[in-house]
Write the structure tokens for this entry.
Amino acid sequence: MPYQHTSEDQHSRQPPGRLAGRTAVVTGASRGIGLAIAERLVSEGARVCITARNAEPLGEAARTLPAARVLTVAGKADDPRHRAEVLDTVAREFGGLDILINNAGVNPAYGPVSKIDLDAARKVLEVNVLATLAWVQAALAHPELHFTQRRGTVVNLSSVTGDTPAPGIGLYSVSKAAVSHLTRTLAAELGPDVRVNAVAPAVVKTRFARALYQDKEEEAAAGYPMRRLGVPADVASAVAYLVSEDASWVTGHVLSVDGGLTAAGGTV
């Protein structure tokens, strides 16, 4: 079933059709934040191509969306052949690209950075940083997407841990710090034709982040002024704003979506 906010219907508070006629690619969208972003973009009128590593859960995710407005292409975000297949499919089926959401990310290592396995570290940086850059480069270079001419928008998924070290996930934090700086750098290079922003969540209740709150959710939420952890819809709302014309003068910004955690001096 499509993700539903547990406290109120956020969709009812948004202008309908804000993204009508626009097309998007959302990576890492078979569940969690990526799927919530895809659902939100579709609810505001966009057509989306969702990607993820495994075809079966990706197909299940697609069934939560209107069939006429969703494409699926399974593959690894850091595989150049997959990127080419996705963008070729979008060009053929949708005729162009307006929105690129770099949501795919990994964190295969837990523990001190000083002891991290270097192969695991390379994988984190390859997927979280270099693949993010590669997707942008591929969208810009594709001759049939007209990404620049269509005044494309990019939103990258960073993290509040990119600013404040988080015990146990130090290399992941390093990669997200790089994503934040990459976002600002690309925004400075690509304006005015392409806007590039990022969202930086704190702990969001997803399978990916489960180890950070499982069996201790109340304790984990105590440091947040909003007194709750995030849900995927919180991030999706922020992304929808950044890719819309409501944010037409916003670029190079890393938007914290953290329930006030960093303002209160807290850490993940």
In short: Helices lie at 32-43, 55-62, 80-94, 118-141, 170-190, 217-221, 232-243.
